[in-house]
Amino acid sequence: QVQLVESGGGLVQAGGSLRLSCAASGRISSRFHMGWFRQAPGKEREFVAAIRWPGRTLYYADSVKGRFTFTADSTKNTVYLEMNSLKPDDTAVYYCAADTGGILSSIRNHAHYDYWGQGTQVTVSS
Fold first, then answer.
1. How many CA atoms lie within 13 A of 1 on its CB side?
2. Is the dihedral of CA 13, 16, 24, 28 positive or negative?
3. What is the pLDDT along the chain (126 residues), one digit of tens a residue?
4. What is the pLDDT of residue 74?
């Protein structure tokens, strides 16, 4: 079992910044992928960013590339999503997730992630 707890969401004006945190506990493996996804009202859950631990390769959705940064602190089993230049379209519930399968081709697919945090609301006002 893996437990994920997110924090750091909130309300921010367009152009502002937020940092989300996701603390992982339980049976954590270096083969996991760790990802951030988001879901806006009436929309499907979408990929935001992920890290593939071997080599710490990072992957980003085109919509956030250059604005969001995924970082990880392995000593704390915590990953972060630094979000800058936020736009109203970034408004969503953001989820941290772990993919125990670790298959590269599935890293952007939320259906392959086994464990999810409770989600944290990010609201960007115009």
1. 1
2. positive
3. 889 999 999 999 999 999 999 999 887 777 788 999 999 999 999 999 999 876 688 999 999 999 999 998 888 889 999 999 999 999 999 999 999 887 888 899 999 999 999 999 999 999
4. 82
Residue 33 tokens read as 């992928």
Listed in sequence order, the residues at least 6 apart from 89 whose beta carbon sits closer than 8 Å to its beta carbon are 63, 124
User: What is the secondary structure of 56-103 as a DSSP string?
Assistant: GEEEE-TTTTTTEEEEEETTTTEEEEEE-S--GGG-EEEEEEEESS--
Non-local (6+) Cβ contacts of 37 within 8 A are: 45, 46, 47, 48, 94, 95, 97, 110, 113
Q: What is the pLDDT of residues 54-69, one digit of tens each?
A: 668 899 999 999 999 9
Place of tokens 């936020």: 86
User: What contacts 33, CB < 8 A, 6 or more positions away?
Assistant: 50, 51, 52, 53, 98, 99, 101, 102, 107, 113
